[in-house]
Amino acid sequence: MIKVLLIGLWVCIATIGGVYVSAQMSKAPVATEAEAAVVTTIVRGNPVSLPVINNGAVQGYFLGRISLSVDSMKSKHVQLPMEVVLTDQLFSLLMGEKMIDLKSVGTFDPEAFRMKIKDGINAKLGDTVVANVLIEQLDYMSKETIDTNTARRGSNPIPAQKIVEGVKVEAPAAAPAH
What we know:
The structure is a single chain. The protein is α+β, with helices and mostly antiparallel strands. It folds into two domains: 28 residues; 130 residues, Tetrahydropterin Synthase, Chain A (2-Layer Sandwich), CATH 3.30.479. The chain is 41% helix and 24% strand. Strands 1, 2, 3, 4 and 5 form a five-stranded antiparallel sheet that branches. Helix 4 crosses helix 5. The relative contact order is 0.15.
């Protein structure tokens, strides 16, 4: 009987020792690119109309909708709504820095505009929260065009001047209800 007990004890010690040695000798798991990739969320911007003021008078309006692709984890720590931060950055770029020259819209660089929005928001937030900027719509409508469309009372309106041909961004799907 003692012989059976010693054999059982020896099997237990050998098994535990084997597991310990294999755990110590195994390599740490390498994170794959899919696991290491940042999980992003689309923050759909609100439609905005920003006045273009020249010599103290409104000359027209920028009509836009810009969305952001943000780091899901980092955006949880932002205290302001991302839509507010985005609108503030748009006001700064379109009204303060006047990035778009309305006399030569063809020279407008949408990629530089995206980078300025991204870098500006990330600088304000103190972290790389914004991964990508998606321009859904960026148009200009002069005051004269608005007056003409108002006089026409909705029949055959003059369209706004397209500055950027935007991308279609779908709203995130709602979570299923239980």
